[in-house]
Design a protein that fits this description.
With about 210 residues, this protein is of the alpha+beta class. The chain has one domain (about 20-205). Helix content is about 15%, strand content about 35%. The protein has three helices and twelve strands. The protein has helices spanning about 1-15, 35, 145-155, and strands at about 20-25, 45-50, 50-60, 85-90, 95, 100, 105-110, 125-135, 165-170, 180-185, 185-195, 195-205. The protein has a ten-stranded antiparallel β-sheet. A two-stranded antiparallel ribbon has the order 5-6. The radius of gyration is 17 Å and the shape is globular. Mean pLDDT is about 85; it is low at about 1-15.
Length: about 210
């Protein structure tokens, strides 16, 4: 029995150790000055063992806010399509649907899945970040509507479905630096801040169902 417990603990440690975060550097020049001016100066690296999967730069402050009446969303202060960050993937990575995202640089904008019955079980909340290849995203202050943003994001996924990462407003009092935690059996969740607003985003893990 002791041997079984030890093996289970070691297996859990190995699984959790697959993914970590580390302090990053400045954003790449491809982002451009207009986008870069809105981002935090230092990013957060997502690591798998000794390999760097990618680096994330979130906004240094919340975008101009608005009040949304969309149900089952947590970030009601954000206008649809608002820029929330930029990511540079150094290796292929999967989004929340398990779609492969090619290495490259992408903007991350706020959206939410439609209440049409096609997304049952996708997440408890409807908030998502949609990725767009940075070369197609021209204006950091734009707030594209749902159809436009989905069309842009299809260029990131290469499929009829946009490239999506589930995120939500977090109640993380006293959060001083980004942290990565395992939730459930396979999800790795980054908790960070945009300005003074904590949020969590699932960086690793495919939605069940």
């Amino acid at each position: 029995m002791k041997k079984l417990i030890v093996n289970f603990v070691l297996a859990s440690v190995c699984l959790f150790g697959q993914y970590t975060i580390a302090p990053g550097g400045g954003h790449p020049s491809e982002v451009g000055k207009d986008f870069g001016a809105l981002l935090e100066k230092k990013g957060t690296k997502l690591m798998k063992g000794s390999k760097e999967i990618g680096e994330f730069w979130f906004r240094a402050a919340l975008p101009p806010t608005s009040k949304s009446s969309e149900p089952n969303t947590t970030m009601k202060m954000l206008p649809h399509g608002a820029l929330l960050g930029v990511v540079k993937f150094d290796m292929a990575h999967a989004d929340r649907r398990g779609q492969q995202v090619k290495p490259g640089i992408y903007t991350m904008r706020f959206s939410y899945y439609p209440e049409n019955g096609d997304h049952q079980g996708a997440a408890p909340q409807r908030d998502f970040m949609l990725l767009t290849p940075v070369k197609l995203d021209k204006d950091p202050n734009a707030t594209p509507n749902f159809e436009t943003l989905v069309d842009w994001s299809r260029k990131a996924s290469g499929t009829p479905h946009p490239c999506v990462f589930s995120f939500w407003k977090e109640d993380a009092k006293g959060l001083k630096e980004p942290k990565l935690e395992m939730q459930g059996d396979h999800d790795f969740v980054l908790t960070n801040k945009i300005g003074d607003q904590p949020f969590s985003i699932i960086l690793v893990g495919k939605a069940e169902g």
